[in-house]
Amino acid sequence: MDRRSTALGRGLLYLLPLGFLGVFFFYPLLAVVVQSFAPGGRLDLTPIANLWREPYFGRALWFTTWQATLSTAVTLALGMPAAFVFARYRFRGKTVLRALTTIPFVLPAMVVAAAFTALLGSRGWLNSLLMDWFEMARAPVRLQQTIWLILLAHAFYNTTVVVRIVGGFWSNLDPRLSEAARVLGGNRARVFFEITLPLLLPAVAAAGLLIFLFCFTSFGVILILGGPRFATLEVEIYRQAVALFRLPEASAIALAQIVLTFVVMAIYTRAQARSSLPLNMRPAAATEVPPTTPASKLFVALTVAGLLLFLVSPLVSLALRSLAGGDDPLRYFRELFVNRTNSLFYVPPGLAIRNSVFFALITTALALTIGTVTAVLMSRGRARGAALLEPLVLLPLGTSAVTLGFGYLLTMGQPPLNLRASPVLVPIAHTLVAFPFVVRTLLPVMRGINPDWREAAAVLGASPWTAWREVDLPIVGRALLVAALFAFTTSMGEFGATLLIARPEFPTMPLVIYRLLGQPGALNYGQAMAMSTMLMLVCAVAFVLIERFRVGQVGEF
Amino acid sequence: MAPLLTVTDVSKSYPGLPVLKEASFAVDPGEIVCLLGPSGCGKTTLLRIVAGLETPDTGTVAFAGQDVHDIPVHRRKFGFMFQDYALFPHKDVAANVAFGLRMQGLPAPQIAERVQEMLALVALDGYEQRRVVELSGGEQQRVALARSLAPRPQLLMLDEPLGALDRALREQLMNELRTILKRVGVTALYVTHDQEEAFAVSDRVLIMRAQPEQGEGGWIEQEGTPSEVYRHPATEYVARFLGFRNLLRGTVVQLHDGVVGTLHDDVVETLHATSLQSATPGYRVETEAGTLVAADSAGEFAAGEAVTVLVRPEAADVRQPGERGENLLPGRLISASFRGSYYLIQTEHAGGVTLICEASTTDVELPPAGDSLTLHLDPTALTLMRPEAA
């Protein structure tokens, strides 16, 4: 291959991610912007101006902000002791426990919502136990459709963010810094507030902002656990667009949402760049000690027990609830495949499994192809194109799935792209959601490849393609597998965008769970539990595989 | 004078790893004592136990006659200078030095004054507002020293304080460090693995040893002033740790003041003369390489006792081959390496014994490698010690 054709080939490679992002990300997003500024084709600022007069907008904005703030505070409060224990103590089962804390993070919102319903809802495990023991007629724990359940679910989701970011940073922090302060006469509290906390602050801020961002764009959890009383901006976009069909209003909210999340993202990126005090980092293995004093043993034991209870009990209750079908423990699972309505148009919920797997496979193939090309282009660094791709990869991460789905509603139902009727729109949306994670998993590994290896291969007679196949691919192989699993689970669990764009005849598993949870009756509830349990198992298996194949600490957030 | 710090039978082990085995020592007021030993001998742990950063499994640490076991680290009023200094990266130089003073609750003007005083002591006037991460290694070391001295600690501990610096800077700072510590008059306990540093800084050296593979944590093998330790290593371990490589097996055949076995008269005379000159006991020892007179030993040895002869590298000077007399060892030059003020020569002698010595460069011309030569070994640079039990 001569130089010119290589350059041409690379140019064509750029077209793949740029084209895909252009058509399926920027075009729908642009439509949202146009719709909010110029509904009906002419510049009209009334929807945006009206936004400030509409009480629902102010209410949603206020609720979104304070629930995200409170969720962040609760998560930090719960996560900091765990981060400390993981960072400073060595104990048996630590690695497994740390992996366990990550499971909730990879679970679909529907599964988490269902799990908390199963544990603390009115039909939940806790309530049935209490009612049995004390022979009560009504459920004593009434957390369903209160803010508490939402906060708990958000904390459940994000504790691992604190453990990984703050705990990771903490474990590399030289313990001699606080020892020096101790010898100089500082008691434990003063040393924590004067030395440890200020040094941890960048990590705490990074974790906090990330959690805030996740909770700010929370959709499924709020929809299920909050009920009609609570609406975040996400929920409000969905409500305006789908229930009320007020597209300009929905667009205006979506626009506000985009702007706000980008502001938070920008602060997050800035904070990360600025916070880098040149610290003398120590390997984690050198800073952890076994708990020796009775107090430290107790603290470690309590933290581990609390963490297990908090993270495992909702998932166990979910599994138990799905099996509580009376005489036949598998009844709810069987019911999923039965057409009770005898209706010709009815699709048994079980078919959603087939749809989900089908969509997930397409998503995996798409996300992997586009993600790999993008990561390859970005890792070969010097080119200006690589610098251009960097923010483009980040943008989809900061755009909520509901907004994306709404953008598809606006654009994909008419020429030039009439894909509304096609089931392929769902995996395309899923690909956009999964794409940033795929790139972030692959990129560090690809950047870690020494270019000398490739040059050595070239000198030994390998063409660029052969060199990639012989050098890069074997090294990137494991990361590719992890990325594939990420893409697959993301697609299996995606809810926000799917809810807006899925055809009724092709429901996915999260959609079925949502529908079943919204319908009355023990049978529907049980089936929702059964479906959630299956989804949880798929994600858990994928997660175990990810943990196994993960290379080092790559692919984090 | 009662010792200020007394460490008695301190033992410590981590799961599967013995660290200290009944280590005992004492430090007098105003003294600079150095714990010297290879890595893994438990010296840093011993220091951390004294500071209160770790607790011993058994044994006691007493300060001014009082057991400090129940005094938490921040109330001990000790100073500790860490390896890599552990300067607070988010505070400037002045705030680092002021930290201990603030913990004492001193009023701000007094703190400011003391910070000035301390920075002047370590020659860092005007560095108050500097970020510690911007300082050079040597400057960081001085800030760390100022920070640990500022609260007037009753005892200052230093853990490899010069370990992170390059050789030239270390050389300069070890003298400076001793000067500052002596000027302040602080009692100091100093940990290092570098004998040169230990000798230059301390009044007294404690040499530590551990045999973790045999389940034994560190203990104190020998203590003494730097010159005592250098001249009279108590054991082969100490000799090897200090870098001595010429250890010869032998048997005492004659004491300085008596005659054992059969000897020529002239040798007896020389022996008596040597003993009288140096006023140290001289011993005549039969070694594999030949008979040697050693006149610089600390202990008493009996005739017929198996001993190890330490030939210090400065003992040798090169003589013409064929020259005969006392402490003259004929042999062959294996190699010679020019080191400026001396040649490092390796020679081979009777019984396959090789010696590595420093031969003065102003001395006679060295023969080419492979040729024979005779070494004269100065009896006052030859020390006897008890051989290591196998």
Keywords for this entry:
heterodimer, A: 557 residues, mainly alpha, MetI-like fold, 24 helices, 75% helix, B: 390 residues, alpha+beta, Rossmann fold, OB fold (Dihydrolipoamide Acetyltransferase, E2P), 2 domains
What does this molecule look like?
The complex is a heterodimer of chains A (557) and B (390). With 557 residues, chain A is mainly alpha-helical. Chain A has helices spanning 3-37, 46-51, 55-88, 94-106, 109-120, 125-134, 147-172, 175-183, 188-216, 220-226, 233-243, 247-274, 284-287, 294-322, 331-335, 351-379, 384-398, 401-411, 425-447, 451-459, 464-493, 496-501, 509-518, 522-549; strands spanning 413-414, 417-418. Chain A has a domain at 54-314: Orthogonal Bundle (MetI-like fold). Chain A is built from 24 helices and two strands. In chain A, a hairpin with a 2-residue loop joins strand 1 (413-414) and strand 2 (417-418). Chain B has helices at residues 43-51, 93-103, 108-121, 137-149, 167-184, 195-201, 226-231, 236-241, 265-278, and strands spanning 5-14, 17-27, 32-36, 58-63, 66-67, 78-81, 155-159, 188-192, 204-211, 216-224, 247-254, 283-287, 290-294, 306-311, 316-319, 328-338, 342-349, 354-360, 372-377, 382-385. Chain B has a six-stranded mixed beta sheet with strand order 6-7-8-3-9-10, with helices on both faces. Chain B has a five-stranded antiparallel beta sheet with strand order 13-12-11-14-20, with no helix packed on it. Chain B has a five-stranded antiparallel beta sheet with strand order 15-19-16-17-18, with no helix packed on it. In chain B, strand 9 (204-211) and strand 10 form a beta hairpin. Chain B is elongated and about 80 Å long. Chain B starts with a strand and ends in a 5-residue tail after the last strand. Residues 258-266 and 272-280 of chain B have low confidence and may be disordered. The A-B interface holds A 174, 176-177, 179-187, 190-191, 194-195, 198-199, 277-280, 290, 292 and B 14-15, 51-53, 55, 72-80, 82-84, 86, 88-90, 99-100, 103-104, 133, 147-148, 151.
